[in-house]
Amino acid sequence: MSSYSDAINKYDPVLGLETHVELSTKSKMFCGCATDFGAEPNTQTCPTCLGLPGSLPVANKIGIESTIRIGLALNCTIATYSRFARKNYFYPDMPKDFQTSQYDEPLCSNGYLDVLVDTEEGSKNFRVEIERVHLEEDTGKLTHAGGATGRIHGANYSLVDYNRAGIALVEIVTKPVPDTGEYAPLVAKAYVTELRDLLRGLGVSDVRMEEGSLRCDVNLSLTPKGSKTWGTRTETKNVNSLRSVERAIKSEIERQAIELNNGNTIKQETRHFQEDTGTTRSGRSKEVAEEYRYFPEPDLVPIAPDSKWIEELRSQLPEQPSIGRARLAKEWGFTDLEMRDVATLGAVDLIAETISFGASPSAARKWWAGELARKASEDGVDLTVLKISAKDIARIDVLVTEGKLTDKLARQVIEAILIGEGNPDEVIAKRNLAVVSDDSALLPAIKEAIEANPEAAAKIKEGKVQVVGVIVGAVMKKTGGSADAAKVRELVLKTLGS
Amino acid sequence: MSRITREEVANLARLARLDLAEAELDEYAKQLEIILESVAKVGEVATADVKPMSHATGLVNIFREDKVETSLDREEILKSAPATEDFRFRVPRILDEE
User: Fold this and answer.
1) pLDDT per 10-residue tile (average), chain A, 498 residues
2) What ipTM score was computed for the predicted complex, to two decimals?
3) Closest Cα partner for A253 from A190, A174, A180, A192?
4) Calculated CA dihedral for residues A144, A150, A151, A153, nearest 10 degrees
5) Tell me: domain B6-45, CATH 1.10.3210, correct?
6) Contact present, A324 and B48 (Cβ < 8 Å)
7) Which residues in B lie closer than 8 A to residue A28 (C-beta atoms)?
8) Which A-chain residues 147-186 have CB contacts (< 8 A) with chain B?
9) Residue of B59, B60, B85 to mutate for A, most A C-beta atoms under 10 A
10) A47 CB burial (10 A radius; 0-12, 13-18, 19+)
11) Beta-strand (E) ranges in A202-305?
């Protein structure tokens, strides 16, 4: 019995998720600095986001509206009166020595998000309840020099880039989610996937986990079966892909079960997910409880959304992802199961985009949910991270449809694109991958294949045409899959006079 | 009855990164006691129907449009930093975080 099923037989997991979403506002939350990802270090800073004396913050209206829209989409109650608060701490990622956040008066609270998960009894709905959605600011980015992972060996300092400090950041916190049993990792992954699609649909964030605009912390505790008291929870940080969400929870369930089985207690602590091993490791245990000394931010006036404003924002909400998916499934001719697979892979938008570039829905699904999903899984990344675009896949589909590429050649083209050899046409030219349908190019290989398979050739001559596959197969093998199979078949039959 | 203990002052000092001597802890505990006593007087008149006040103006919903404005010149901001490297602020290393 695996350690996972052993753990699940003895304990019920209770999970919770904290998700941080960087909003895609043009300017920062409390000042006019730009928010471009990947800009030169410290080129997007000003007295306000650097916390220089005398500077005053003013809230970005789109940041506030985006947060309310997220709350509405998550079925939350919108506060009629909400304040910002200072979260005080000393760490160089915030030059002000506090983070502007929200404390006891979040903008949105008490919502839910329904997610579908495939279980042994078929597809099952799990309701993930939302505790709160609040607005804060992102922190600066630290580069640690020295140590095992640092850039500069032996150095003993950190470098800070404050471009990210002050960018609008929304935190979405779930209530504890009990009763998911063995499906806990899948429910968590489905929740983050659904949330990502919802946020993308709202257009409030570009939700790129690989760039850190969507980040996840996972809380988990185990309760012995039959017990009503929840166990001590751990918080795992650094869970930065959909796949990692699932893996982090699974490994934490296994780890905690082993601790409990050995009679140990679970320490309440922060743990870090490690992408390479798929396990969590303990962070530095805190000797003293964190005390942030929150107090209302005196420099920002309270937010008091009236019902007119809220209803206006509600009326502008896009359709829910689940409704959108049902519509697309119908439009694309996908079964419910196919659509759910595609959604689980996080491939809905990629497929939509591929179709918009001219691919057929079935081909778009075939590539993204097949070959490319396998690649992504091998590399341990999400589909969106692969170095191939919807446009590339659409072009490949067109070439396959036109008979200029076989599936096998198409896979080689995809391989080449993934390692950076260029777009489909460049790769085909460079690697000479086009389908060969020219008689003179094919005939020598056909002649050779017939000589190598005299028995099959004899049977075909006798009229047993179904044996032709043997020769065609040999030719395909000989030509590395680049031959036009239909043409080869025609030529083989012609050569053998059948 | 004292409103603040010496231990609480020591904890506040730790949170504020203030290195206080033993004698200073006693001294500040005494001073803070007087401040807290004065502030407590407000509690005598504040009834349950008076909400704690955080802002004096009564203003709400003051926003700015989402418009990009010019940032500071990088050379300028890095000039006032004690140490820099690669156009970044250089700070003492803090272990095992992030």
Assistant:
1) 87 97 97 95 96 95 98 97 94 92 96 93 94 97 69 71 97 96 96 94 91 93 92 91 93 96 92 90 70 93 97 93 90 92 88 94 94 89 90 93 86 92 91 77 84 86 84 83 81 81
2) 0.88
3) A180
4) 120
5) no
6) no
7) none
8) 147, 155-162
9) B60
10) middle
11) 214-224, 234-239, 270-274, 279-282, 295-296
Tokens encoding A182: 């063995």
Q: How far is Cα A452 from Cα A106, in angstroms, rounded to an integer?
A: 76
Report, at the CATH architecture level, how domain A439-495 is classified.
Answer: Orthogonal Bundle (1.10)
Inter-chain residue contact A304 with B60, CB threshold 8 Å: yes
In angstroms, the CA B35 to CA A209 distance is 49
Question: If pLDDT is split at 50, 70 and 90, which confidence band does B1 have?
Answer: low
Q: Which residue among A26, A50, A301 places its CB closest to the CB of B68?
A: A26
Asked if the Cβ–Cβ distance from B91 to A158 is below 8 Å, we say yes
Q: List alpha helices for A380-484, DSSP H.
A: 390-401, 407-418, 424-431, 439-452, 454-461, 468-478
For residues A442 and A484, give the distance between their C-alpha atoms in angstroms, rounded to a whole number: 9
For the segment B11-57, what is each residue's pLDDT rounded down to a tens digit? 999 888 899 999 999 999 999 999 999 988 888 887 788 877 889 89
Residue ranges per structural domain of chain A? 3-313, 319-431, 439-495
Tell which residue, A342, A461, A484, A470, has the closest CA to residue A405: A484
Q: What is the pLDDT of residue A496?
A: 83
Cα gap A390→A203, rounded to integer Å:
19
Give the gap in angstroms from C-alpha A435 to the nearest C-alpha of chain B. Answer: 51
A34 touches chain B (CB under 8 A): yes
Interface contact flag, B78 A26, Cβ < 8 Å:
no
